[in-house]
């Protein structure tokens, strides 16, 4: 790791590297209840972010997140590309340059609402929102030990998508056969939260 790496650069890099390191797992999850492209989609997007990291990571927090989101929209594809892109772009729009926990919770609330609107979806449909929403609640209602608490909250929320029946996205076509598998997009969000909290 270069010394003096800007925090936004370090966090964006950690998220992208973590997703790339878990691409095969994400592929396997999407093979079970989707078309098997989620790992490759996310890997492509995160590789594009890393390729552009010198530019993105040098920007202030809001612009860096917005730029990363823009790259994801252009490169991830599938249903999840525009949704993850919306998440990061909206975070960038509402975060001040030196965010506190309350600022982060406020920005995440806006970003989660934007993902819900974009996906015409909500909690309980077995999607990434089933991790985003509990993470938001834990960040908003908790105290400043969020770095140690949120990974467990996100991991448990991703695991809790397994018994759900999908109501949105490709997995919804499977009906009851979507039950028993973790949602790939939910797992991606949990990996991102873990990466952010560890970095
Ligand atoms: P595709 O479904 O087009 O193949 P991906 O495999 O990359 O795209 O992404 C699938 C993930 O996208 C799902 O696991 C789910 O978490 C998320 N997703 C799909 N549709 C929606 C939606 N309407 N709202 C929120 N998340 C969604
Ligand atoms: Mg897919």
Topology overview:
Blueprint: H1 7-21, H2 23-33, H3 38-51, H4 53-56, H5 61-75, H6 80-94, H7 101-119, H8 129-141, H9 146-159, H10 184-198
Bound molecules: adenosine-5'-diphosphate and magnesium ion.
Magnesium ion binds at residues 30, 34-35, 37-38, 78, 170.
The CATH architecture: Alpha Horseshoe
Q: How is the CATH topology named?
A: Serine Threonine Protein Phosphatase 5, Tetratricopeptide repeat
Radius of gyration from the CA trace? 16 Å
Mean pLDDT: 96
Number of domain modules:
1
Unreliable runs, pLDDT <50, ≥5 residues?
Answer: none
Helix content: 55-70%
Please count the helical segments. 10
Bound molecules: adenosine-5'-diphosphate, magnesium ion
Features:
10 helices, binds adenosine-5'-diphosphate, Serine Threonine Protein Phosphatase 5, Tetratricopeptide repeat, 199 residues, mainly alpha, binds magnesium ion
Give an overview of the whole structure.
The protein is mainly α and 199 residues long. The protein has a single domain (7-198), classed as DhaL domain (Serine Threonine Protein Phosphatase 5, Tetratricopeptide repeat), CATH 1.25.40. The protein is 68% helix and 0% strand. It contains 10 helices and no strands. The protein has helices at residues 7-21, 23-33, 38-51, 53-56, 61-75, 80-94, 101-119, 129-141, 146-159, 184-198. Helix 1 runs antiparallel to helix 10 and helix 6 (80-94) packs antiparallel against helix 7. The chain binds adenosine-5'-diphosphate and magnesium ion. Magnesium ion binds next to loops.
